[in-house]
Amino acid sequence: MFQLATRRLLSQTELGSVSLALLIGSGSVEGAATFPGDHQHPLPGRGFVLKPGDKLVVEVSCRDAYLRLCSVAVLRDDHEIRLDKRHDSKISGNPVSVPNPEAELCSALACLQTGQDPPKDFCMLECAEMALGQADPAPPTDSSDLLYVLDVSEGFSLLSFIAASHGHVKAYSSVEKKKQQEVLKRLAHSNNIPEKHLEFWLNNVDDEHGMLKRPSREKLWTAIILDCVETCGLIRQKLMEKASLARCLLEEGGHIFPQRIKVYGMLVESDMLLLESAVQGQEPTLGFNIAPFINQFTVPVHVFLDFSTLECRHLSESVELFVLDLMDSNANYSNREVKVQATSSGRITAIPFWYQIHLDQEISISTLSQNSHWKQAAAVLQQPLQVQAGDWVLLAVKLHKSTISISAHVVNEQTQ
């Protein structure tokens, strides 16, 4: 039998870890639970064998809704034996980390049975299935050195084709329509890309909800490409949830593209945005004052905006409003206050915003570029805000369910 005891609980903002102890019962052990051998307790060819009375200590952490095993040890006769380190004679005799402690632990526990009479029929789960699950058939052994890239862009995307053209890459496209798949196949054929290096991921899953999965039982993704910004100028819905899941499916050293998105904005005065976003004036319609009623249902964000042709006056320089980090969840936040100094006098009616999409530390693209297919969006203020040149305006920027909202008010000199 197993006796489960909690030894220590650590609480952090987005990471909780707990140390658990499993006491191996005194009953007979049918089969051996083995771990990579410790240099103090070597067991050639089999690893480390748990014995009755041993206490198995596991440090468990939970990040992005997935359990991770940080360390494994055995307490035997008040002596701690580390199982997440193994002795490697090829590296100056120094202990090195076991590459996959989850798999080693699951494999050991799957082989451990207790009781006098072992069952005739039993099922043993694969260690990787117990650790992370979501497995598909394994790739051929000769493709184990390939880099696995998943493109989950919306609509028709050439990114998977571009990735496959670099060689030693097995790229998966999320293109769903058969005609679009045929176009990518012909492009790949005309560019001498092997057919097995470009596949269509939705053909391997039951529905699009299973799109973010492991490429195989043994492999994780080298890179996952996310479509972050809609053409209308808004952040795609559930982007952060997809990024959270994608991080769990990356191999060590893997990346999400883009890695970071910076939101920029500017104070403007635009009567056109006011006219298009709400009913202006108090003139009755057929004898009824309907403007206050209709304005209750106005949307505070104006989309499909072409900032380069918008009739407006710029009342400030562009400023960074928000940052979304798709690789580091601890760097994210839900609201932020930004101070902006007005460079001209006027009425602030809206704050247009756009995105600088950083693929990595060096390469980025802007949705404000005139060569871009993206449009911009603008947060329209419910009441215009009068400012003078030199005034400081405090913007309260919030991100809720992938939707950006912005409010503004003038900061008095006494409160600065």
From TrEMBL:
Stored InterPro entries = Arg_MeTrfase, PRMT_dom, SAM-dependent_MTases_sf
Protein arginine N-methyltransferase domain: residues covered = 311-405
> Coiled coil: which residue ranges?
none
Give any single GO term for biological process: methylation
Q: Which GO terms describe its molecular function?
A: histone methyltransferase activity; protein-arginine N-methyltransferase activity
Q: Does the keyword RNA-binding apply?
A: no
**According to the lineage, what is the superkingdom?**
Eukaryota
Keywords from the named record:
Methyltransferase, S-adenosyl-L-methionine, Transferase
Q: A Pfam family this protein belongs to?
A: PRMT_C
A single GO CC term, please? nucleus
Do you know which PANTHER family this protein is assigned to? PROTEIN ARGININE N-METHYLTRANSFERASE, PROTEIN ARGININE N-METHYLTRANSFERASE 9
Provide the protein name: Protein arginine N-methyltransferase domain-containing protein
